[in-house]
Specification:
homohexamer, 320 residues, Hypothetical protein af1432, 3 domains, two-stranded antiparallel ribbon, 9 helices, hydrolase (chains A, B, C, D, E, F), nucleic acid binding (chains A, B, C, D, E, F), NA-bd_OB-fold (chains A, B, C, D, E, F), hydrolase activity (chains A, B, C, D, E, F)
């Protein structure tokens, strides 16, 4: 049963994914379970299990599918689920795990295919070979890695989706400025965040557990630069090409306080920065406004400089 | 004779435009003229007129065409022109003034036509009417106004060129993000800098003489917002549309310290900001690198955050 | 019964205003009411209603007058009210709602009268007419609007009180600097915050519920400038006067990061800024120190840059 | 002859004060003198002495009165004086040195008298005694010290003039806020900058030659605090009074980066800061606009945050 | 029994110090005690006293030694003590209070002795006398004062320990730079924080209760400067020596926003700043890493600019 | 003849090094040479060659030794050399080039030897091997490279001198904090700036001509990290050691705006930063004060945050 269809006092039952689970104590000595569950639409509801006798809390964890029976109650003017029965999903339930995972709207295979097509558009053989080699190295991890822990594109396959959309943007924008070297631009886009796969530790659901030790001590920009260095040596890439691509990675956050000790010094590096930013912002803004009604404001959003976005009431006149 | 073909000790002669002229004193009591002249390619050279007896300095000013005869000398390892003879260009010389003016690479008529086509793509009738009315009001001034005094697009028709290129960018970028309301985006692009025609006082060569008093006390963002307000009242435009477009103008510099007291709160305002920035940067970078040889650095550029850009030696592999 | 006279274990009874009310759950499944009530001195106390059976929580809200009976208890070394009985105030109780509202120390009528007297001191007929027209437009809302949601003068009639005190300050300070144009100064003071009545949505108790949509997208400075623009057109006010008054509104926060894209460029705008600041600070400091004993510190105050003020022990030697 | 009456090619003669004098070399080996002179209105003009043979340059210095004869020439569209004859002023010339000095518009005696009257209004005997003692200590220096080297009130008696005007402001502003302790406020105003007489080394013309060593290593705020400390010990002043007045001196620049490690923590310290600022700004703005025509802008002013002020064309309607 | 040896469900008993104690209410009307206790290793555990009937809460306070009996329970995967019995420690228990206090690893007597030895190395008689006098004045308080409330060296005798270690550093570093005047350096180190004994109010356990009024209004830097001023007058110390030492105190935080209105202008002041910083950082880092395993990260530390430090897994190869 | 012994009107003759040379024009059409020369003490004087007929200006360049004859003249109260004769130094003159070069006070051989001794103190074999390999790679360049273009240690062998002094500091400071891993600290000190030899292009006199292209696009921190990466692969160094040393290089400027995207996360990295800073500051301060008299101030120094340092008049009481 879909969470958005719940009504007060209704008896409900269905399959859900645990998003958060915590044992709590009541002041009269007993304990209860505070739990958040989500359905296939990724909508969430909070619930309580007042009697947790005999539940093996090591089995019930975030990311686990469960079958739930309970009653919808009103608490502080919000819905809350009084959970009467809960058990782990079994094979015979025939529930598809993938349906409960927030993921990119395009399949990873499709996106990987598209990115290879873009790499194929690179004319300079060394730039192409280098880009191909590094992308192949990361292909498996990219099929599920998100682009961030809590910021934009924090979904399964999010990093891949971000790269692919940036390549589209890069192609369109460079069609307007004919002095742009698209070899450099495409290579820069493909490579710019590849080492996030080494900076973060993510599982196959696209959920980041933590940053790696090297990620904390060096960061993906520095990791990416040394990876390019290594592969360039192996492939005997020209020194200037190596240096320019390393510079693009180094400068793509633009500001020193965001991790780029050098500002972009070539137009392709400048574009890379803005394409990265635009895609992050468009993703975040679209998501922030997705459940907002026309004529009202979204909640304050820390990934968007603390802004509370507005949705116009006259909508997308042009798109429909 | 073209300046880039000058050689040491050569006698030269030709028609040039004065870019800078100044009377100076030598310490032994005499005076001489320090002058910069430019040819049709907009290349410049410094020259000296040691004997300025009888020259009417009120006639010789920046922006004036002159016929010059002189000799190329070496001074501190640079070329300098020892000017022996100089006179004002006369009608019989058959020199075309326009050839000496830095101007947009597309004719103003052509650009105005293209912008009208974009306005025609706006679906919402009120947004279209408002945009049309304000653009028409400024059409004459736009045919020659630059976009800035010293920064990007400071050429004749520069503001028009900036708007037109931004519209191209807007169309391409919004084709990737389908939730973008292109009515708002196109209107925002057309309107965002229109009041620069009131903020600055420019002549028909596209040269800014000064900022207007209102420009100094209010600035083009505030001027633009009150202009929209006035026209919306005249046309009985819907309040929300007025407010949202005013918000787009208000927020398009993004940062308070650059003149925007509110940050963008709708995705179209966010895009407007980045499209504006990208076009300014691409214009400035292209220009900064135009005379730089591959493998070397341009001069420090204050319009580009003080950067000294690099030009790769392997060039535009993809564009040739 | 006054809250400051309560004693431990005392049985109390009286009329109070609800300031905050919230339903809470106890961990054994039951619910109770957490409530803050205030008396006519605006002193507050927290209370609990352990048995809320049958209370219509839609009727009991912040800003409502109630009759309360209960017992004062000690909890964590502070007083807390165990509420045994609570009901809504009825007409027959003969309780005056106004007595429970934090309001300016002078009546709105009196303040409005004084401000008209100041406007009358303006000599230049256009400046006077413009100021009069805009002030009249807002007179009704001003009779109850506060000057802010949580900062200084957040009381009923607070905005009016702020304007009136600023006019007093303006008259006194300009008596020392004879080059100041008091027409501009008085007009600037009256107009500077008028559009807060459009930026915020407040009820007749002077309590701000929220900011308006236009307030969030444009802000009172921009709203004020367009209002001046409109009225100037209607009254055919001289362009320079319009522009200078708009500049005063625009620059009165002085710093770009506080909403003023232009710094004050005339002495009257400079004074307006400091008079605004002084009155806000004196109001806030007086209030912050009002319940502090001599020789000790007030609590940290976020409206005063996070400062914890000190009250000297030797007091106001000069005032009494 | 007054400088503002000079005309091109005119022969002039008169008594002037040297404001700047410098020996320069011409490139053919000779030397000449570049000199600025001012008349009684403090207007200045630049001049050249091409033949400086036999001039004793140790005698001709800034601040010296001279008799000058020469001819007004046009150079780069500005007036310049070709000085033919120059000699030191002699007693028999009957020129009054004082007439050439930029000084406060009120006599030092008068200002000192007024400040004593204010000190007399202090009620608390210890605050009065302390203020009196410190002011007496500095009375002689104050009769000519400026308030700054290059910023506001950099004229003879400028510090005294600043203190006196601040006291007027303090009296007027505190009449509006009755919780202000005027004893503290008056004492704080008198004491706040007294140690500038130790921080800077100024001559009796009110010209600052340099900062003292102690001024550079400690600064007038710290110097003032230790002076108060010393005198409080000598006079057995109450500890809290000492501490509070030291705090007022310490915090009167408000911001750490302007020299105040503590922000004001009492209302009187807050007012002291704003009164100081207002008087500095009003002085500087009045001066910056003094030679500006209505409807135009003053030059960029570094003492006023780099602003270029505007003078309205409709003037002081109220003061005429 | 040591806390680090506790196991789930174990019955325990022992002597502990109360670190935090609070009465709380359960929602069913009852109250219980939430308490933190520490053992001699300064390890802490949280406990609950569900039945606090008859406990005199005025006697049980932070810093008090108690005898505790209870059972270790598991709550939210952490240990929690269910306290069954608690009483105050009595003389007959023979528990040594000092064992429970976090203190410097060297005895105060020993440190005081060492500091006197350093003062003895000062050659210039006036610098030595001044330093000796001020240090003697503070000797008693220094025997237990910490260096800060919550930052580095916040332990009994911490300020003394900080000074002593800084003197060691000063001696070693100045042995490399022979132009350093060690008289000034040693004096500066001894004096730099002495007035923290006036800025903070600490008890003999080295726990800071609060800042003093003077500490809040002036701060230890200003307090230190006036103390030096007073003693220099009493001892007739040379003006330059006084001024230079005051400058060292004034500038030792280096940055205005950290309380130093002047930056260091002599090399000894520069060194003082860095020696102070190094000792604070080494102390804080050593402590932050003390319970961290090799190859992992410490918790975020606000005294260390919010960093989460890393401990290498290959350890101190050189020290073992 | 030594420059510091020159007197006005004296005829002088001697061997000097050219420090700056420039052809200039006099306004009457002729040219002359403006030149700075230095003696063996590195003292400098400005001179003019009024008649440069027949001088081959390609031969006379900065860094060249010349024999000069001329007369000392007074110009603007400073000494200036009227150069009558100048020629290049010849072999038969028997002048030692080295004597005219600003260089470290210890021979490069001696410093290299000392650094090898420090490397030998490293216990961990991999850390030692890595450090040794990288140091050997750079040994030749280090024998003359300065540490900076215009900042501290900008002398021949300056980088070596900086490293060696830092190692001394590191040894002394780590003797006080026994938890410091000296292997890491020594390795970090040796490696931290090694890639400055790739970032800058310097000649064998230790004069930096320019930054390299890679230096401008990446900078020595990034260059150093990739060099460590390469050598670690070649030597099969343990991953954690590589990562930790790269982190030390990355973080040694501490602040992002100075080029360190990560702050130090291990104590050895923290110490490396402060040791680097202390040595740079002590070098710069010693130099800035070297020609200043006691009781007066040095000139404003941009390498020292714009400070004007003070030299006490009581000098180094302890070192004499």
């Amino acid at each position: 049963m879909n969470i958005k269809d719940f009504e007060y006092n209704q008896k409900i039952q269905g399959y859900y994914m645990i998003k958060k689970i915590e044992e709590r104590t009541s002041k009269n000595g007993g304990t209860y379970i505070d739990i958040n569950i989500a359905d296939q639409n990724k909508d969430e509801i909070n619930g309580k299990i007042w009697n947790a006798q005999g539940m093996d809390l090591n089995a019930y964890k975030s990311g686990i599918l469960v079958k739930v029976r309970g009653q919808v109650q009103k608490f502080n003017n919000k819905m809350q689920l009084h959970i009467e029965k809960i058990r782990l999903v079994e094979q015979s339930d025939d529930v598809n795990f993938e349906d409960y995972i927030a993921a990119a709207p395009v399949s990873s295979n499709q996106m990987i295919h598209e990115i290879y097509s873009f790499i194929d558009k690179i004319i300079h053989p060394q730039i192409k070979e280098l880009t191909l080699t590094l992308f192949k190295d990361k292909e498996v991890k990219l099929s599920y890695y998100p682009a961030a822990k809590t910021h934009h594109h924090n979904i399964k396959g999010g990093l891949l989706y971000h790269i692919r959309t940036m390549l589209d943007l890069g192609e369109k924008i460079s069609s307007i400025y004919d002095f742009i070297n698209t070899d450099l631009l495409y290579a820069g886009i493909v490579l710019h965040d590849l080492s996030k796969t080494e900076e973060m530790i993510a599982d196959e659901l696209g959920i980041v557990e933590d940053y790696s030790t090297e990620g904390k001590l060096l960061g993906h920009i520095i990791q990416g630069i040394t990876e390019i260095d290594r592969v360039c040596r192996e492939l005997s890439i020209d020194d200037e090409i190596k240096m320019v691509l390393q510079h693009m990675i180094l400068s793509h956050h633009y500001h020193a306080e965001y991790g780029s000790p050098k500002m972009p010094l070539i137009p392709e590096a400048e574009l890379l920065h803005y394409i990265d930013l635009i895609d992050a912002r468009m993703y975040g803004m679209n998501k922030a406004l997705s459940n907002v009604e026309g004529g009202s404001f979204a909640e304050k959003n820390y990934s968007l400089d603390g802004r509370s976005l507005y949705k116009t009431s006259f909508g997308d006149t042009n798109n429909g």
